[in-house]
Amino acid sequence: MKKYLFITVLILSLNIQNAKCEDVFANPDALGNIQETFYQAPSIQVSNDDDKAEDESALRGTPWFKKTRIKITNFIREKDYQRTQRLLEKEKAKEKTQLEEDYGDIPEELKESEVQPISDENTPELAGGVREHVAPNEVQLDADNIDFDNQTADVIATGSPVVYFPPQKTTIKADKLIYNTESNKLKAIGNVEVIKDGNSIYGDFLQINMNEETSVMDNVKTENTFLKITARTSEMDEKTLTLYDGKMVADNSFVLRLESQMISGINFDDMLVKEEDKSSLSDAIGETAIKIKAKDVIVNAKKDHDTFTLKKAEVNYGDIGLFNIPSLTIHTNKKHNFFEANYPEFGSVGQLGMFAGPGFVFDTPLQGGSTLKVIPIINNKSGIGFGGMLKYMSPTNQTMMAYGSSADVFVLRGIQHLDDKLYLQYGSNSYMDEGFIGPRMAKYDAELIYRDSSTIKDFLGKDKNLFFDQRAGIGYMQNTTYDNMDEKFAKDDTATMRMRYMASANQDLFKYIDKENQKMFRLGVSMQGSAAVYGTGDTQFIGRVGPNVKTQYKRWMQDIYLYLSAYQDGTPMQMYDSYRYGHTNLMIREAFRICKYLSVAWAGSFALADDAPNGNFMQENTFIIAVGPDDVKLQLGYDWLREQTYFAIVVAMDTKGSSLEYDKMVIKNPDRLAKSNEEEVELKVFDNPENSEKPKAKLKKMMYAEVIDIEEPDRESIE
User: Fold this and answer.
1) What is the pLDDT of residue 444?
2) The pTM of the whole model exceeds 0.90
3) For residue 315, what are the domain limits?
4) Do residues 253 and 656 touch, judged by C-beta distance below 8 A?
5) Which one of 321, 502, 688, 691 is most buried, by most CB atoms within 10 A?
6) What DSSP line would sit under 340-355, residue for residue?
7) Which helix (H) or strand (E) holds 470?
8) CA–CA separation, 224 vs 15, rounded Å?
9) How confident is the model at residue 658, as a pLDDT?
10) Whole-number Å distance between alpha carbons of 184 and 207
């Protein structure tokens, strides 16, 4: 009997609105520096449109290191609490003795009540805590009328009948409930409602076979925050839930963002645009809700993974048919922190160049529901080549490695989150985050990093916020000998340790925003500093400060940063992490919205004093074009210095009205769906016993208290 109402699990498990396949190499805390945002790897992001400040750590899950830290902290807190309790008990006993010496015996009525052990031999003794009495076959029935038919052995309940199953914490309501005592079957007829964990499923008819632990329900309907689910009928047994002729509809507004990271950091969404000037794909083709019709949908709740498979599916965008899917499987962990699917991948990665290839996803037993995606690729760096790519993903780790014969290079890039602000990044021949110095490429590197940021609102007055970011790292790196920018550095393969601390502060000084007239002006000042020491004994010190301006006038937006720098650059790995921007660095980003469907942008960085150690006056030079409506854009970019082409697809569409229709949906092991075996750990909070009232003061108050019984003079009395 304990597993016959599986359909309730569906309500809790099909909501994946928090899923996110994040680009961990992007720098979300950038202060607008061009250096920080070049060379971002293609990725997919799914998030709420307005939720800019969502908790990334919640999406990632809890790393093992953080769990261990919390356990140790809890252990120390508990020991400290217990020690404090023992000291207070000793103090209490000492003060009680002193009170008895000072005031004599304390009246019984003023003594603190204590629980005395029960010595009555007829009273059962509780050992090992309180135990809950479990009655698996216990059922509670409530109705206005209950009749028994002797011929059919039916118990018939009418008049708002309600049956409750305590072990499952499940309630069933209907117009009529019929329970057959011989067959051990329960039927619910008319306006059936199944309630569990505050969620409801509705239907016209429900039959439960308590012997075989199976059930059937007709015209199933249910809703949660984002989805409305219907089905003509359903069948349930111990391990499988099957829905027939059903449909899932996104009934509420939810913005789906699919974004490939792009060079230059230019975000066209920052531009103020009038409502009448905004564009949408629906303007051209009408309704744009995604509609999928699938013959079969298979949901498999495994031990550490949940997989969702569509078979023989047609995908339509509004009334336009996009493509057919023979089979597509989406893999996620139990908490749905991320997802991966066996769709093709394309994009561009630093030294590898542009690539494309089909993807095949496999579940792995590592790190609480991780996946491994295998991608045979064609790449284009200096001609057409072939190779392969592996992408490992878990709630706390994202790693990509690839090889392409066109570039004849092995590329590795990865990050392992250890705690909320502590992570390990590692790579080979790949541009990695180096704070405000910008992404840099070593032959290989591994670095342990602590990074924290905060915002002090209204620091210098209303809307004059101060943003602070700090980064401390220790790692081992080897200098790269790859040079595609003709830099005037001596090439060597030095490998050494490096410890470095970096800090950035950006203060808003003035803001003016006029959305209606598309005008904006923001003035601020940035201060940045870095200090590094190497295993060779060399050092590097950088300090720079300067104003920054962000403006928009109508369809023209620009960012200007000017830095005056003082530095002593003794790095032994010049090709890797030399400070390239000279004593006076000017960074400019320009963006222009030509029309609803076309925007262009350019980004550059200049060493104005022409004293950059690599000998280049222009340090960055990139052009970007964005084509398409605001909700679906294709972005193309070209980097003249590195002679590389980049592209990205940005999708931001409202999924309201999108639907999935299916002939049959099979959910395997529904009782395990979205239920994680991962251990949950939280910081324990103990009440501070020292805040409690002192026993001595409490007893003294009671010793001098006097109770006076005041009678009403006019009160009637009964003799």
Assistant:
1) 93
2) no
3) 34-48+252-264+273-661
4) yes
5) 502
6) EES--EEEEEGGGEEE
7) strand 466-478
8) 8
9) 83
10) 11
Please classify residue 211 by burial: count the beta carbons closer than 10 Å to its beta carbon, then call 0-12 exposed, 13-18 middle and 19+ buried: exposed
- For residue 29, pLDDT over 50 is answered with no
Q: Identify the residue with better confidence: 241 or 10.
A: 241
Q: What is the pLDDT of residues 58-105, one digit of tens each?
A: 556 678 788 888 888 888 888 888 888 888 888 888 877 777 776 666
Question: Is 348 domain-assigned?
Answer: yes
C-alpha dihedral over 208, 210, 211, 215, to 10 degrees?
A: 30
Nearest CA-CA partner of 265 in 44, 588, 598: 588
The DSSP symbol for 701 reads H
Question: Do the domain assignments include residue 73?
Answer: no
| Tokens linked to 690 | 């020292």
The encoded tokens of residue 365 equal: 């037993």
pLDDT of 370 > 50? The answer is yes
Least Cα distance to 264 among 619, 610, 652, 630 occurs for: 619
Give residues with Cβ within 8 angstroms of 369, minimum separation 6: 304, 305, 332, 333, 334, 335, 363, 394, 395, 676
With vertex at residue 293, the alpha carbon angle to CA 291 and CA 298, rounded to the nearest 5 degrees, is: 120
Secondary structure of the chain: what % helix, strand, coil (to 5)?
15, 50, 40
Q: Which of 262-276, 386-400, 621-635 has the highest mean pLDDT?
A: 386-400
Range from 19-33, 166-180, 296-310, 554-568 carrying the lowest mean pLDDT: 19-33
Alpha-helical segments (H) within 38-119: 56-60, 64-103
163: closest CA among 11, 7, 5? 5
Three-state DSSP class for 356? strand
Q: What is the DSSP letter of 275?
A: G
Output the six-digit token pair for 230: 């219907």
Please give the backbone phi and psi of residue 453, each rounded to the nearest 5 degrees, phi first.
Answer: -145, 155
Instruction: For tokens 């601020």, name the residue.
Output: 524
Cα–Cα–Cα angle for 62, 64, 67, rounded to 5 degrees: 70
| pLDDT for residue 313 is more than 70 | yes
127 token code pair: 């050992």
d(CA 719, CA 715): 13
Distance CA 88, CA 98 (A): 15
Looking at residue 59, its pLDDT comes to 52
Pairing of strands 659-668, 290-301: parallel
Cα(608)–Cα(398) distance, integer angstroms? 38
The average confidence (pLDDT) of the chain is: 78
The token pair that represents 489 in the structure block: 């550095």
Q: Out of 64-73, 98-107, 530-539, 648-657, pick the least confident.
A: 98-107
pLDDT of 22 higher than 80 = no
Residue 159 and residue 9: Cα distance in Å, rounded? Answer: 28
Residue 431 lies in a domain: yes
CA distance 588 to 578: 21
Look at residue 26 in the predicted model and tell me its pLDDT: 29
Question: What's the total number of domains in the chain?
Answer: 1
- Give CA–CA dist 127/113, Å, rounded: 22
Q: Which token pair is 149?
A: 């038919």
Q: Is residue 596 part of a domain?
A: yes
Tokens of 51: 């939720």
**pLDDT tens digits for range 464-475:** 999 999 999 999
- For helices 695-703 and 64-103, the axis angle rounded to 10 degrees is 40
What's the pLDDT at 3? 33
Q: Give the burial class of 249: count Cβ atoms within 10 A of its Cβ; 0-12 exposed, 13-18 middle, 19 or more buried.
A: buried
Residues 497 and 576: their CA atoms lie apart, in Å, by 13
**Residue-level length of the chain:** 719
CB atoms within 10 A of CB 270: 12
